[in-house]
Design a protein that fits this description.
The protein has helices at 13-27, 82-88, 90-100, 111-117, 133-137, 163-188, and strands spanning 2-6, 34-39, 45-47, 53-55, 58-59, 66-69, 104-108, 125-126, 143-144, 149-151, 155-158. With 198 residues, it is of the alpha/beta class. Helix 1 packs across helix 6 (163-188), helix 2 runs parallel beside helix 4 (111-117) and helix 3 crosses helix 4 (111-117).
Length: 198
């Protein structure tokens, strides 16, 4: 599984770094898993929502196996963040193109709104940060669920920022089954909720 986490100025740190911790950790011990932090523009410093500066490793590839989209800056309609990216349109178009090419697209928190703007949530069950449920319900054909992770085939969405860990562990189950996800969670000292994956 080749996973890419799509960064943009104003992304929420935990939305991206939680999944990165899980996937990059696994890529260190398995040759069949890779993880990269990417932007549309290529390798560059990216300033996150709370001020952390993260250097992306390269440009979004044409067809990663999994594309993870964080949120950030949605609820306050920040000048940098998911809201701003939705208004510009370039990032949603890039997400839609990867999905059309066969990439499984995943989101954490309000990253789901970028997937919705990309037009790929219609006909899918999805979740997002509870504070953005009404925004997500505004998109036709999206069944909004209150869950930590909603796995709907080629689209996987996670709730609030901490749910990014659950998302990454759900993706690991696709690679190596529940045992691999349990081992990764134990390595992080993370107790997965018994319920909350739909």
């Amino acid at each position: 599984m080749h996973a890419e986490i799509l960064l943009f100025d104003g992304f929420d740190e935990l939305d991206a770094i939680g999944p990165w911790e899980v996937l990059a950790g696994l890529s260190a011990v398995r040759d069949d898993v890779t993880a990269r932090l990417v932007t549309l523009e290529g390798a560059r410093p990216v300033t996150a929502d709370h001020g952390a500066v993260v250097t992306a490793q390269g440009a979004l590839s044409q067809r990663p196996d999994v594309l993870i989209v964080p949120g950030g800056g949605w609820m306050d309609r920040a000048a940098a963040g998911a809201w701003a990216q939705a208004q510009r349109g370039e990032l949603p178009r890039a997400i839609a193109a990867r999905h059309a090419a066969g990439t499984t697209v995943a989101s954490v928190c309000t990253g789901a709104l970028l997937l919705a703007h990309a037009g790929i949530l219609s006909g899918h069950r999805a979740t997002t940060n509870r504070g953005a449920f009404d925004d997500l319900r505004g998109f036709e054909g999206v069944e909004v669920l209150d869950a930590r992770v909603v796995d709907d085939g080629d689209v996987v969405t996670a709730g609030g920022p901490a749910c990014g860990l659950d998302l990454a562990l759900a993706l690991l189950e696709r690679v190596g089954g529940p045992g691999l996800a349990r081992a990764a969670a134990a390595e992080l000292h993370y107790e997965r909720p018994v319920v909350g994956v739909s």
